[in-house]
Amino acid sequence: MNVPLGTFSLGQDQPFRLIAGPCQIESRDHAFFMAEALSTLCRELGIDLIYKSSFDKANRTSLRAARGVGIVEGLKILADIRAHFSIPVLTDVHAPEQCAPVAEAVDVLQIPAFLCRQTDLLIAAGKTGKVVNVKKGQFLAPYDMKHIVEKLESTGNHRILLCERGTCFGYGMLINDMRALPIMAQTGYPVVFDATHSVQQPGGLGHATGGQREFVAPLARAAVATGVSALFIETHQTPDTAPSDGPTMIPLADMRALLEPLIGIDRLVKQGSQN
Amino acid sequence: MNVPLGTFSLGQDQPFRLIAGPCQIESRDHAFFMAEALSTLCRELGIDLIYKSSFDKANRTSLRAARGVGIVEGLKILADIRAHFSIPVLTDVHAPEQCAPVAEAVDVLQIPAFLCRQTDLLIAAGKTGKVVNVKKGQFLAPYDMKHIVEKLESTGNHRILLCERGTCFGYGMLINDMRALPIMAQTGYPVVFDATHSVQQPGGLGHATGGQREFVAPLARAAVATGVSALFIETHQTPDTAPSDGPTMIPLADMRALLEPLIGIDRLVKQGSQN
Amino acid sequence: MNVPLGTFSLGQDQPFRLIAGPCQIESRDHAFFMAEALSTLCRELGIDLIYKSSFDKANRTSLRAARGVGIVEGLKILADIRAHFSIPVLTDVHAPEQCAPVAEAVDVLQIPAFLCRQTDLLIAAGKTGKVVNVKKGQFLAPYDMKHIVEKLESTGNHRILLCERGTCFGYGMLINDMRALPIMAQTGYPVVFDATHSVQQPGGLGHATGGQREFVAPLARAAVATGVSALFIETHQTPDTAPSDGPTMIPLADMRALLEPLIGIDRLVKQGSQN
Amino acid sequence: MNVPLGTFSLGQDQPFRLIAGPCQIESRDHAFFMAEALSTLCRELGIDLIYKSSFDKANRTSLRAARGVGIVEGLKILADIRAHFSIPVLTDVHAPEQCAPVAEAVDVLQIPAFLCRQTDLLIAAGKTGKVVNVKKGQFLAPYDMKHIVEKLESTGNHRILLCERGTCFGYGMLINDMRALPIMAQTGYPVVFDATHSVQQPGGLGHATGGQREFVAPLARAAVATGVSALFIETHQTPDTAPSDGPTMIPLADMRALLEPLIGIDRLVKQGSQN
């Protein structure tokens, strides 16, 4: 099943789409800077882009961590990016009452992994009619995503994306089961691979989540070879100074080198499928 | 650190307190029936009881599963049980705005495992000044509970309980790391062992969570021998017909046989401590 | 089923027996020193002792680690300890051809966890007619131990012990599933809990296995409360200078304080059973 | 580092080599039939082949499972296949004393995963001077393979291959951590991905190991995209009637369709490297 989104659609037989952006909306200027850079890069590489950024980090490890610009300011920035660059925009929602206002500003509502079983949030997101990207909880088996799909479908919304971002493996470590990608694809909905959160090390920095940025590239290649509809990659011009997810974000300057082989593998794997 | 709660307190050197009740508030009559039976049993056994029941099951596996009587009716019933039986009452909260009204009706607010990192919910619960029982997320290492404690302490509330209810172990299976109990106790706060959710098998029934009721007794004995401040045990007169958590709840008629050896082990383990 | 061993027997309704000793046979003098100390302690506490020590460490993490005194010298020492102290002796075997000579010197042959599926080793051990203690592989589910039992039973030997020593949990970490104890007991054979290897951290020291000695006591209490036939505890007068398993062994001077509460819990849990 | 083997070599910048064959040597005729079919296929596809088959299955789940033709007959068959087809041959060893005779008949000695920490076996295998392929134990972290490499290197043998075949993930399930491939490659030695044992479900059939053959293809694509020196794939003309590993082996008739996309991905990923 293909999920239409503006001028393109997401589907298991379509070229992968790129969901990318900095973890947080840091400021209007920073958001425009990042969207400009990513738009240009994707145009050059011939990839369709969905711009991603969060207005609130609602479940930081530590209370002292930065939470973001807030919903009012954040949605204004995202709406302006959508209008200015003519690209679809994605952000995450944390409470049912956020869904309607967020849906006015963005094209894709994302359900965070920890919240993927919260029925009211799923229903509220589904009811907006927008595309909903659900991250598989780190505590969930891929074949259990069918129940989440059913909750969303009950709203009449069939524009659903299912996203792998790692599964619990002992303490302080996630693992990617590449079988999860074809298993989730059995629902018929497009599958997304989140290459940067997958290398998180929960609690790895003591006061914050750590990460293994060096494994983003091999895992992204593996996922694309397995077959995905979209890649989710957080990026930042200087990740190590970013207010969140620094250890996992890819330096903006490295994005081209990361993406080029993925495009080749994707083409090869989907050869023979409709394009 | 001891956490006072009505006529008693919870502490690692106190006899274990029992948090018990049916998973859901099914009706006023059923709630009173259960509270009556548990009060009588605990009086006979010399255990302090905290009555537990949920007004809403917000994260059921399947959309078709029963969600409960709702917050308005549920809180009325819980408040009446508290008044009628003179026992503290516990229920779980799912959104920040629920915390204040819930705090008027009950003595302990419980943070569900999936939501244990949601900062706003923790803060709102902490601000009520009520005792807050946080279930350790199935995706969290026990030593990372210190960050959750810090979020709660930031509200000035130090009446905190930390609850073990199983950790992800492969797909569709939880495991109890008994080391988690002493590790969480290092925070200084009382530790609770949830003996019935610990034997859940997520997704185990296809459309719902399964369970291994036969392991509740050995795991409860193990936890008490390790040292806990409270046991959390869901119970029902006929679990197999209950609207939720049937595969894990203990038949009411079996509670006495389950509890008696636990009391003995608890006394032995805490010998020499203040009583 | 009770497994007779010299003047006592092991069984789920018998008081727990203690399998204890230093990881390696370091020298004749050291072995006699340890056996003397443990014999005296167990006599005072009223526990039956099986003396444990290895003549060869065949699967050390690193090549540079000490392997032991060897089979010829080791078996002589073990046989002399058995004769001198009149206690049963246990050691581990690593190859089928070791079983017959080892069986002449000791009372219990132990199958190491990594080797628990090696059919020829199990058969050779079984054929000696001696008690065989099989450690559950860290890679094995407890319910799969029934196949190992069957391999041993095929030799006509029904003097089998099944030992829990931790299960893989992510990288570099073991976890004890206390459900494994009743599950393995369903075979009808006595179950042993290895409290010191259970707290190993494979590869935790970089060049060697690390450990969390502080969790031996709570895990041993948990296991005894669940119900076991024997406890396996490695001990040493100065663990931190021992040639192997230093991070997990219990200082000899701490053994009494470790064992005393276990005896109380064991009595309580087995009350009503034959003694 | 490249590991020479007959007319080719294995290396992270070389095209992947194929290690393939039926799990067991069933008979001379069957072995020749399989070797003929695989030789022809690999010649047509332009892949270098290493023929794999076992003379003994030393650690079957159940005692009643078939063990194979034995070492004497097995080695004769393997030597004859090597001579007849002019291809290198691989088989696994289970005891130190097998290494020398096996080394006379084959080109690659394989250390089974359960035995990967048995020092004597590693040393004996290394001393033969033959290529040694070590399967990473299901209980081992990939970064701990460096200790195994060191044991082998101590014999002066640097013709080492390191093979990923899955890691414990809960009970009865393996998972492939694709990060393990680049981590093991940091040793400098070629890395092999075993695509068929990786989908085993230990104990999954009750009396035997089950498997998920449908995931061999996506996992193999993922591994090749990550970057490997060789693929290990067991195959059989009718896997479901094979005496071992039926649930995971690939039907011989499906091998071409499995391999073709892998060749494309491999070329793409290694573009720019020496060929």
UniProtKB/TrEMBL annotation, chains A, B, C, D:
One annotated GO molecular function: 3-deoxy-8-phosphooctulonate synthase activity
Keyword presence, Plastid: no
EC class: transferase
InterPro entries with a match to the protein in the record: Aldolase_TIM, DAHP1/KDSA, KDO8P_synthase
Family from the record: Belongs to the KdsA family.
Principal cellular location given in the protein's record: cytoplasm
Keywords tagged on the record: Cytoplasm, Lipopolysaccharide biosynthesis, Transferase
Name of the featured protein: 2-dehydro-3-deoxyphosphooctonate aldolase
Pathway membership, UniProt: Carbohydrate biosynthesis; 3-deoxy-D-manno-octulosonate biosynthesis; 3-deoxy-D-manno-octulosonate from D-ribulose 5-phosphate: step 2/3; Bacterial outer membrane biogenesis; lipopolysaccharide biosynthesis
Cellular compartments annotated: Cytoplasm
Domain DAHP synthetase I/KDSA per the UniProt entry, residue ranges: 9-260
Reaction(s) this enzyme catalyzes, per UniProt: D-arabinose 5-phosphate + phosphoenolpyruvate + H2O = 3-deoxy-alpha-D-manno-2-octulosonate-8-phosphate + phosphate
Encoding gene per record: kdsA
Listed EC numbers: 2.5.1.55
Naturally occurring in which organism (per UniProt): Bombella pollinis
Highest taxon, organism lineage: Bacteria
